[in-house]
TrEMBL record:
The keyword Cell division does not apply. It is a multi-pass membrane protein. Its main location: membrane. It comes from Streptomyces pyxinae. The keyword Zinc-finger does not apply. Keywords: Cell membrane, Membrane, Transmembrane, Transmembrane helix. It is found in: Cell membrane. This is Type II secretion system F family protein. The chain crosses the membrane at residues 77-100, 225-250, 262-281. Residues 125-246 form the Type II secretion system protein GspF domain. It holds the Pfam family T2SSF.
């Protein structure tokens, strides 16, 4: 081959070499070595700035999580638009207060469980302070510091303990709140220890063990009933699965359900049967959750 005349692979090799150079230059711009600054902003927003969607979620996310029941309206609109009917949107408006009630009940239940756990911890902390040599009032003041067991009655209970007031009465008043029933047992232990001279630490230990056993029993029941709750959820989703299957087969189930008399009748009867079945199944499972 003559000098200066490229061989058969010359153009391909030149293209591959230039491509590698471009990739290396791009890599140096994206990931500068030794902490050097980039040559310029990469992407649609400046370096270090959050994407607009993430920034919007940080500002609106807590509000949306606190008002999740309003998500029923977009879901109803998503069915109303392809179905060309206002009935799904009206049903979503009716569902908003029902879903809100359900969500608030779940939040109260979780708050009660956290309060119950705090009461168990308070019993153990007071018993530990008593064994360390503290007086009952001093032990309660130290153990209740930073604890959520006393709730809204914390000031009254601590004032009774600090100034020689009626601590059992204050504990019973605090026990009326959700998840704080164990404070009534603590008040009984306190009353017996003050009137009869019994050991308060031993009584609190037994109370803590009983409360832990009740909590563990509830958790075991929930674990055993997880399959039943899964069945309830599956039953709730079956109508949506039927709609999707109808669309997949080329039918228009929303037009039949929302724009024909027979479809409207089936929709009403099926909705009532679905609600009754879910209510009955949920009632059975919740009855099984009772200790």
């Amino acid at each position: 081959m003559l000098s200066g005349v490229p061989g058969p692979g010359g153009p391909a090799v030149g293209l591959m070499s230039s491509g590698r150079k471009r990739m290396a230059r791009r890599a140096r711009l994206l990931w500068p070595a030794d902490g050097a600054d980039r040559a310029g902003p990469v992407g649609p927003w400046p370096p270090g700035a959050e994407p607009p969607l993430l920034r919007w979620w940080r500002g609106r996310g807590p509000w949306i999580r606190e008002r999740r029941e309003w998500l029923c309206l977009p879901a109803g609109a998503a069915l109303a638009l392809p179905g060309r009917s206002v009935l799904p949107l009206m049903a979503a408006c009716v569902a908003v207060p029902l879903v809100a009630r359900r969500l608030r009940a779940g939040e109260r239940r979780r708050a009660g469980e956290r309060r119950e756990e705090a009461v168990i911890g308070l019993c153990g902390a007071v018993a530990g302070e008593l064994r360390a040599g503290s007086q009952p009032a001093r032990a309660l003041l130290v153990a209740a510091r930073g604890s959520a067991a006393l709730g809204g009655e914390e000031a009254a209970v601590l004032a009774a303990a600090r100034f020689g007031g009626d601590v059992p009465a204050a504990l019973r008043s605090s026990a009326r709140e959700e998840g704080a029933a164990g404070l009534a047992g603590m008040a009984a232990c306190w009353q017996v220890a003050v009137d009869g001279g019994a050991g308060l630490a031993a009584g609190l230990d037994r109370l803590e063990a009983a409360l832990r056993e009740l909590r563990d029993q509830r958790e075991r029941l929930r674990a055993q009933l997880a399959g039943a709750w899964s069945t309830v959820v599956l039953l709730a989703l079956l109508p949506l699965v039927a709609l999707v299957m109808g669309w997949a087969l080329g039918a228009d189930p929303l037009r039949v359900l929302l724009h024909t008399p027979a479809g409207l009748g089936c929709l009403v009867v099926g909705g009532l049967l679905e609600a009754a079945g879910l209510w009955w199944a949920g009632r059975i499972v919740r009855a099984g959750e009772e200790p």
